[in-house]
């Protein structure tokens, strides 16, 4: 899947206007994973594609360097913390003490460039109660076309106890258009997405 490198190298040479025109005309012709990559970056997210666990570790290290020296990370589940055990001293179980939130997700919504999270990832909190910086770990098998497909996946995945809440993050830059109806009620989060190929 070297197409991600191709997208971002060519995208840098094109103007945003040209990219928007291409997206609006050819959305149906662009593969879903490419659509996600383009739209996620247009929404202001920082997208990093990895093909191995080794790459994931290097990417995580570089993200922490970019964020800065005063990093305190809260997390949605213990398995994520153990994935990055090298940085154990940076983790805290108290969300109020943290400035970074490490989480997995339910699905990646390709047509929106958004990230579907449930109460399982949000720890029963509203997104505005969580740190401003998100690091999301996901796999390519979690990509779905739209929210409807994501909801079907949720119903299939949680047959007995369904999550109490769902939110799809799609605003990753502070200067988003506040008048855009699609951003209504949305919370801005500076978001890094580490995507691991597992297909």
What is the strand tally?
9
Low-pLDDT ranges:
2-19, 21-26, 176-185
> What proportion strand?
15-25%
Q: Average pLDDT, to the nearest integer?
A: 83
Pfam families: LUD_dom
Domain LUD: 94-170
Organism: Capnocytophaga cynodegmi
InterPro entries: FTHF_cligase-like_sf, LUD_dom, NagB/RpiA_transferase-like
Characterise this structure:
This is LUD domain-containing protein. Residues 94-170 form the LUD domain. Pfam families: LUD_dom. This protein has one domain: 3-Layer(aba) Sandwich (Rossmann fold), CATH 3.40.50.10420. It contains 7 helices and 9 strands; from the N terminus they run αααβαβαβββαββαββ. The chain has helices spanning 3-13, 16-26, 32-42, 53-67, 78-83, 119-122, 147-157; strands at residues 46-50, 73-75, 100-103, 107-109, 114-118, 133-139, 143-144, 166-169, 190-196. The strands form 2 sheets. A 5-stranded parallel β-sheet has the order 1-9-6-3-2, with helices on both faces. The chain has a 4-stranded mixed β-sheet with strand order 7-4-5-8. Strand 2 (73-75), helix 5 and strand 3 form a beta-alpha-beta unit. The longest helix is centred in the first third of the chain and has 15 residues, at 53-67. It is globular, with a radius of gyration of 17 Å. Residues 2-19, 21-26 and 176-185 have low confidence and may be disordered.
Brief overview:
The chain has about 200 residues and is of the alpha/beta class.
Descriptive key words:
five-stranded parallel sheet, Rossmann fold, FTHF_cligase-like_sf, 9 strands, 199 residues, four-stranded mixed sheet, LUD domain-containing protein, LUD_dom, NagB/RpiA_transferase-like, 7 helices, 20% strand, alpha/beta
């Amino acid at each position: 899947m070297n197409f991600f490198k191709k997208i971002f190298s060519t995208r840098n040479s094109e103007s945003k206007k040209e990219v928007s025109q291409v997206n609006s005309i050819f959305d149906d012709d662009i593969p879903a994973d490419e659509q996600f990559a383009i739209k996620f970056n247009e929404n202001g997210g920082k997208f990093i594609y990895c093909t191995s666990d080794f790459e994931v570790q290097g990417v995580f290290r570089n993200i922490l360097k970019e964020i800065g020296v005063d990093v305190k990370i809260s997390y949605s589940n213990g398995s994520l913390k153990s994935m990055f055990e090298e940085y154990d001293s940076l983790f805290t179980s108290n969300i109020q003490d943290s400035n970074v939130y490490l989480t997995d997700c339910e699905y990646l919504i390709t047509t929106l460039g958004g990230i579907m999270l449930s109460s399982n990832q949000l720890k029963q909190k509203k997104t505005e109660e969580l740190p401003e910086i998100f690091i999301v770990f996901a796999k390519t098998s979690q990509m779905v076309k739209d929210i409807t497909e994501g909801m079907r996946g949720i119903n299939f995945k949680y047959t007995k106890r369904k999550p109490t809440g769902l939110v799809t993050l799609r605003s990753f830059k502070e200067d988003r258009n506040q008048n855009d109806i699609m951003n209504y009620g949305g919370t801005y989060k500076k978001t890094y997405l580490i995507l691991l190929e597992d297909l």
